[in-house]
Design brief:
Elements: E1 16-22, E2 25-30, E3 43-48, E4 53-58, E5 75-78, E6 81-85, E7 91-95, E8 102-106, E9 117-122, E10 125-130, E11 135-140, E12 145-150, E13 154-162, E14 167-173, E15 176-183, E16 188-194, E17 205-207, E18 210-215, E19 218-223, E20 229-233, E21 249-250, E22 256-260, E23 265-270, E24 275-280, E25 292-294, E26 297-299
Antiparallel strand pairs: 1-2, 2-3, 3-4, 5-6, 6-7, 7-8, 9-10, 10-11, 11-12, 13-14, 14-15, 15-16, 17-18, 18-19, 19-20, 21-22, 22-23, 23-24, 25-26
């Protein structure tokens, strides 16, 4: 399937790792680094996909030391806002894409060892998971209440996906690795099915009765009724593997998309057939991390050129 791409000379952070579709907007938040660029640390861009123009804003923490940088998988959309967590989960930021306004919400002390935060939403909550702790933090949007859930035996949460009611996540609890359904109103994890193989790290999608993730050389699907795991390998298709920073994105055409950093390709997956296609992006750019589906198109921010 041919991919027709156009590069717009619009502003984006120098390392746009957290990319979120909010209505007709694409919010791109950059990882704070010591590298100089057109946008400073603590800045983010908002692409309005209707006129196809972007604006730059500031208002996030500017530090390059954990827990303040913002990494892949640390954002979601809910209620017309983009929600982004700091690396260590101590601060949740609400971004209004229409105005660029930022509201900071204190979520408690940073995760121990500054474990990476993964962010999803379900049931009116913003859920901030830790990649290596028993702790999950919740922000109830309607009441602005912050709470903490401690799950005995939990040693980390990665690979989150939401159906609006529950969050599905790859977790290890008491030594059992699997996809679990998290109910934020009850604060409980329920095992759907055990998993093996490559680890899904970032955002996935719930589609056609399964939860789907990109993970290195595969797409992983776990049936939400039977718990059966199915892995779809793309090692036989030239073009490299999924970036460790990419989300898996379901587009309007029914295909799922992710970014392959090694060859600067868009990896296209058909969940109906299990087939893969890899399309080289043009022009070639570095500092690409994840696609976003918004307004009938796919968008991939790039931090290049830096000057």
């Amino acid at each position: 399937m041919p991919i027709f791409s156009t590069e717009l000379p619009e502003v984006a952070p120098k390392q746009p790792q957290v990319n979120i579709a909010v209505g007709a907007y694409v919010v791109a938040v950059g990882l704070n680094t010591s590298t100089s660029g057109l946008m400073p640390n603590g800045a983010f861009s908002v692409m309005d996909t209707t006129p196809e123009t972007a604006r730059a804003f500031t208002g996030l923490n500017t530090s390059t030391s954990a827990p303040t940088p913002y990494q892949s998988g640390a954002g979601c959309a809910y209620g017309g806002y983009a929600w982004v967590s700091s690396y260590g989960g101590d601060t949740l930021y609400r971004i209004d894409p229409a105005t660029g306004g930022v509201t900071s919400i204190a979520m408690g002390s940073a995760f121990a060892s500054n474990n990476v935060a993964r962010v999803s939403t379900a049931g009116g909550y913003i859920c901030v998971f830790s990649s290596g702790l028993t702790t999950t933090r919740l922000y109830q949007v309607s009441t602005a209440a912050v709470s903490t859930v401690t799950t005995t035996g939990l040693t980390g949460t990665v690979g989150t996906a939401s159906d609006g009611t529950y969050v599905y996540a790859r977790t290890i609890i008491s030594g059992v690795t699997g996809i679990r359904r998290f109910d934020p109103s009850a604060g409980t994890f329920t095992l759907i099915g055990t998993t093996t193989g490559s680890v899904p790290a970032n955002q996935g999608v719930v589609h056609a009765g399964s939860v789907w993730y990109a993970a290195s050389d595969i797409v992983l699907a776990v049936n939400l009724t039977t718990g059966i795991q199915t892995s779809y390998s793309h090692t036989g298709v030239a073009g490299g593997y999924y970036s460790t920073a990419t989300d898996l994105v379901l587009h309007d055409d029914g295909y799922m998309y992710g970014y392959g950093s090694a060859s600067d390709v868009l990896i296209v997956f058909d969940p109906a057939t299990g087939a893969f296609v890899k399309e080289t992006l043009s022009p070639t750019r570095g500092r690409r991390y994840s696609p976003v589906s918004c307004g009938g198109k796919l968008w991939i921010p790039s931090g290049e050129p830096l000057t």
